[in-house]
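Running co-folding for guanosine-5'-diphosphate.
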Amino acid sequence: RNSGRLSGPNLENGGLADPKNLRVKLVLLGDSGVGKSCIVLRFVRGQFDPTSKVTVGASFLSQTIALQDSTTVKFEIWDTAGQERYAALAPLYYRGAAVAVVVYDITSPESFAKAQYWVKELQKHGSPDIVMALVGNKADLHEMREVPVQDGIDYAEKNGMFFIETSAKTADNINQLFEEIAKRLPRPPSS
Ligand code: GDP
């Protein structure tokens, strides 16, 4: 059905429980200012626009990607939209999430410490088979780097996470981040 198609939304069915067309909830976590909204806007709209904020709370952005085996994955991306502080929202936010992307800023050790806090929260409240990615963003600011790449690699490995450094500004590794997540999703059995 989708063979030969490189990208674009799957309009033929809702994708639920269809092993060829997955639909997954993805939640973003991380300190305010690490670039979560910019990563989403780069991925969904192909733009870097620090002034435009993803709308708060109720809605999410979605983007479909096609993999080489002709399956598609539709990400429904939930951004905390500045509500990082409201811990009480967390269980609702995590519910049904197949993917969690925990973001820090490579120039900010505080944001790396906060990322580790979010990973622990996910381990407590998230689904046990959630796919977790650790993302060191703002990789373009390498001259201001304060979190060594190896620290990210080591922490991710200890916690069974996929690790990548990105730049929403230059677009480095943004598509790769979502492609790698897609490859790691558990597949419903095909009939
Ligand atoms: P959020 O609070 O985590 O959603 O962070 P935002 O997406 O609002 O980004 C916070 C600020 O960081 C923005 O004003 C951007 O200018 C900046 N920013 C985001 N991503 C990058 C990046 O990859 N490189 C650089 N240099 N700046 C970034």
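Result summary
The first strand starts at residue 21 and ends at 29.
Strands lie at 21-29, 61-66, 72-78, 97-105, 131-137, 162-165.
Job closed.
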